[in-house]
Amino acid sequence: DVQLVESGGGSVQAGGSLRLSCTVSGFTYSGYCMGWFRQAPGELREGIATIDSNGATDYADSVKGRFTISKDNAKNTLYLQMNTLKPEDTAAYFCAAVASVVCYSMPPDEYTYRGQGTQVTVS
Question: 25 vs 9, 28, 105, CA distance in Å?
């Protein structure tokens, strides 16, 4: 079975940093688009970062220059380094995957698999 399990969320003051991790099992990265999206209460899901099989990355304008997506193939782990956090970054963060060679601006609803989410609160 495919499983994605996020960790690393928490509460942080504005300007601080957090690193989210997503441990993946049940498939390999080859041919998969991996990404992170977030959802705040009462808001639509927002895709924030993607990384394709070749390591090419893409970011939403709202996080560009502050967040970095990466993956460690040996550890089957996806990361999201979040720096210079702002109160508007407060949301539940989800890692996700879909079998696709196209990754650019992947809409959150297009992902086949996603984790249970981890909460990030910035005050």
Answer: 20, 8, 24
Q: Are strands 57-59 and 3-7 parallel, antiparallel or unpaired?
A: unpaired
Q: What is the pLDDT of residues 88-114, one digit of tens each?
A: 999 999 999 999 888 988 899 999 999
State how far the alpha carbon of 11 is from the alpha carbons of 15, 17, 18, 41, in Å: 12, 10, 9, 16
